[in-house]
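During the reporting period the student researcher (J.K.) took over the structure-prediction task from the postdoctoral fellow and processed the backlog of single-chain submissions. One of the processed entries is reproduced below for the supervisory committee.
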Amino acid sequence: MPTYGWNLGNTLEATWGVPNWTAAPFYTAANAGFNAVRIPCAWNFNATTNISGGVTNYVIKPAFMAQVKKAVDYALDAGMYAVINIHWDGGWLENNITTNVDPVINAKMQSYATQIATAFAGYDNRLLFAAANEPNVHNPAEMKTLMYYYQTFVNAVRATGGNNTNRWLVMQSGGDTLWLNALPTDPTPNRIMVEYHNYTPSLFTIIHADQSWGNAIYFWGPAYHYAGNPSRNATWGQEGAIDSYHKQLADLYVSRGVPVLIGEFGAFKSPLSGTEAVWNDASRLYWNKYVAESARTHGLSPFYWSTPNQPFHWTSGAVTDAPLVAALTTWATTCSGRPAITSSRPGSTR
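J.K. obtained the following structure tokens:
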């Protein structure tokens, strides 16, 4: 199982421009203890639409497919698992899920899945295919539509043959966890897993400004609350909530033999200064450490949402955030604030 994952984020799914990257960060990550990388991809943005004889074809550009192959090869050569997905990509799939199946979306799913599977048919099972990223599903009826697209994805991949007949496929959930209560029909048993993301609480992890529905949180975890500004201490979404969420996923899926990827998780620094910045950074490191360890303890596979040059430089491979790398890959880490972390494994003494 891929248990220490990172993301090649904001790179091959970046419709605003792909940054330069090399093999170096893959080897740096592997040497640091990571054994898997998730590679988000923008297939639709990098495809052309051709109409011939009344038939519409959605053709992935060969240059882009070559870039994705290069990333996968780097990952496998470094000894890691690789997951390639259909990411946000302008929202052609995930922002257009309704109660009715759209034949254009389904045709694109069929076309892209077939082309991806054909290109990678010779790759072994260290390469996984994921069908989506964060599908916007608002009710069970929309989940039924999403499952239709997922069935198309599974059928297309399996039909290409080669190693795709038994490759692991990943279905990303959306909305309430209870809505994904069935998986697509698969001629190969026990080769489908599910994916969820975790940014709880978002007002601490990824939103750093006050919102109409809540104020930004700077300090997470009771041991990392800052007495100098208690109004910014977390009052919800802390360790118990993280463990409860992961336990729910374990009970729903892992207990039934269905693996679960936490395809994205991460907490990032708030724009602070002085002592508040020190305590915020300590909270950030603690959150990332706790979530990763809680996920693994519950039998889940966590993938940190890393982006260009954080925590690895995309071209040189240099580690740009050594405390974070240590927090994500080891049981014991000293954070930049106090108290220091000795272990944040759920149920341990901290």
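The committee noted the following: The radius of gyration is 20 Å.
J.K. will present the remaining backlog at the next meeting.
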